[in-house]
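Q: Hi! First time doing this. I have a protein sequence and I read that you can turn it into a structure. Is that right? Here it is:
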Amino acid sequence: MRFDHAGVATENAESLAFRYEDIFGCEIAHEERFGDLKVIFLGLENGYFELLEPREEGTIAEYLENHGPGLHHVALATDDIAAALDDAVDAGVDLVDEEPRPGAWGHEVAFLHPESTGGVLVEFVEH
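A: Yes, that's right. Below is the predicted 3D structure, encoded as structure tokens:
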């Protein structure tokens, strides 16, 4: 597996994208509306920042209400998401997603429960 992206919950993805462009010299690689979210991916040399702005009530809106803006999850890319999930279960990890599901940018995704990963919400991504 390899690092894919860090998901950042924010109330204004466009404003944060401009801020990150100034600070880190990265540029917008992809932008879309996905479900209840505005999603902006900023390209880095070895991955992305994924900025998540809620457009209506949902998981990220609830996260912002409870925790405020900041790091939401870390994503690892895999060539075989089903095998990665099987390996996680074999290692005793509780899953948020038993099966892969459609994610932003057309990728298949699945999340691991943070109680099993040291308090970090981990996402598997298959491009």
